[in-house]
Amino acid sequence: MAKLMPLLEPLPVGSYGKRSSGWWGLLALIVTEGSLFGYLLFSYFYLASQALEHWPPDGLPKLAIPGINTIILLASSGFIWASERCLKNKKMRSSITLMAVAIILGTCFVMIQLREWSNKSYNMATNLYGSLYFTITGFHMAHVVVGVIILSLLLLWMILGYFDDKRYLPVTIGGFYWHFVDGVWLFVFTALYLTPYL
Description:
The chain has helices spanning 5-8, 21-50, 64-88, 92-118, 128-159, 169-194. With 198 residues, the protein is mostly helical. It has one domain: Four Helix Bundle (Hemerythrin (Met), subunit A) (Up-down Bundle). The N and C termini lie far apart (66 Å). The mean pLDDT is 90.
């Protein structure tokens, strides 16, 4: 029984007066992953400028479903921000509820994106555009799935009482990752769905 007790103790506060290693690790991850998406979007625009056929080949993309998905993802970021604020203000129940809503919204984004993929008349092997579309949105989807898993673990730790108004740095770091994923989606949405109309 004594061996189980350390598992129920709150997570450590971390070092005072400096950023934790988790914060710096996340920053390095964001720089790396941001570069990856930058290269993918650069490739998209470069190949679009070199394409001889109409770009996208199947005509202008429909904006309704991706637009709704964008609103859902941005709303999830707002709920995560509010969850962290509630945690800082000792409103644990509200924090848990808001985090759960953010996870539900993230899961809705994934389901809607999968539905959109299934409705496409092309696939990754159809043409250059299809390859770029599914690669870019697929990489983003992978980041969203990882984010939902991270948020779910944070929610579990909240429910178990690991966080309080002094111990919440993992929530900040997890939220920062989610905001990054949302920010990347704005670039992806603009590139794939809005620029063809210009």
